[in-house]
Amino acid sequence: MAGKREENPAGSSNNLRGDVLRVLGVLKLATVEQIQQITAPHLSYRHTDKPTPSKGKQARTASHLGALSDLRKHGLAENGGKIPGGDTLRNLTPMGLKAASYELGRLVGEMGNPARGAGRTGASHPMVVNDAVLALLRPKPDLAQLANEPAHVLAAAQAAVDTPDGLGTIASYATEVALPATGTWSNPGRGGAQADIVITSPEDGVPLLFVEIDNCYESAQVLASNAHDLWISSSGSARRAYLPE
After folding, report:
1. I want to staple 66 with a disulfide (CB 3.0 to 4.6 A). Which of 10, 16, 89, 232 is the partner?
2. What is the pLDDT of residue 190?
3. Residue 89: beta bridge partners?
């Protein structure tokens, strides 16, 4: 046990570090709270007795912060700036991206590039992409993990469980995916498009879904009039959606 603690001073488990690698391997850049919401949604319903919301968030994310600390020690993760609210952004190093490829079962060439430096200006667009992934995933809390929580906490968690299921798991998602007009998938040429999110979730009846996150300069009325931007192919083999930022 002492040897394990020396190797990982924060005491994180292999499973917890694997969860962090999978999320950052997909999102490339995220806050520790976003990582927690995706991998351990039941924690979002704990520590409601803390004196302030910030203390509650600190308690909910402590285990994931420990995992990130251990990953940093091994040169797999690093801090990547801050969002306007003050939360620190995390991203993988090239070595961490390679480790994430094993966790996700993907070829290293399919992982894209690490998001080093992307958070220096607040990463407003990546954060909206992350919000869209969370909205599509709809992570459900494990009620068994909340058995000792107060009744109002259990009721809130039950309400989340009772909502419609989301699409796939984090391994069903990829972000910043090149759609090359020339070149290859792993080495795209100039002039090709890039999808903010690609989802492959055949178990949910969604073989392929492209999501583009755009800056929302249009009014709600204009967005509603552009409903044709959401379509499903006649064969049912592909879907495409545009979501406002």
Report:
1. 10
2. 75
3. 31
